[in-house]
Amino acid sequence: MAETYDFLFKFLVIGSAGTGKSCLLHQFIENKFKQDSNHTIGVEFGSRVVNVGGKTVKLQIWDTAGQERFRSVTRSYYRGAAGALLVYDITSRETYNSLTNWLTDARTLASPNIVVILCGNKKDLDSEREVTFLEASRFAQENELMFLETSALTGENVEEAFLKCARTILNKIDSGELDPERMGSGIQYGDASLRQLRQPRGTQAQSRQQCGC
Predict the structure, then answer these.
(1) More confident residue, 68 or 129
(2) Predicted TM-score (pTM) of this structure
(3) Which cofactor does the UniProt annotation name (predicted)?
């Protein structure tokens, strides 16, 4: 049976190599830790239907390679993304320092309106921490990002990160800040009837004339 949903959102998981992006995606989709995770080559894909604020939303998630040599390949997947998890490793200062570059790519290549949540992953390795919660919070605030620390190993805050991002997109649709009808918004209506409900009456009449109904 085909899945039914109100909206489809295109999501990205971005950040430097080794931050646990594939493990976050796997934990969210499969609800378990991915033991034998190698560096992603190019792009991996996963999807899941979730319930957010009374709406059924299908998240179509593209997990991009963090290595520099794949950067030109992965950049082509940014176009038309509605949301992104921007991931760094709390035990690696280097991955934190490169966040600005990743964020610039997302806002330039996907959309200035892309909803981004900053994820400090590997929260379970707190004793090896190189980046404090406070400084990451400050970075998030300065760049107008939401922020959570996550653990792909234990599952802590993984679901919440994706749902928080999806909830923010829905709120922006409701407020009119995001328009699913706009090309490249990264948002699609789940079925034609819902799209018709959202169309102005004149547009509906036009549609009927065009299809002869």
Answers:
(1) 129
(2) 0.82
(3) Mg(2+)
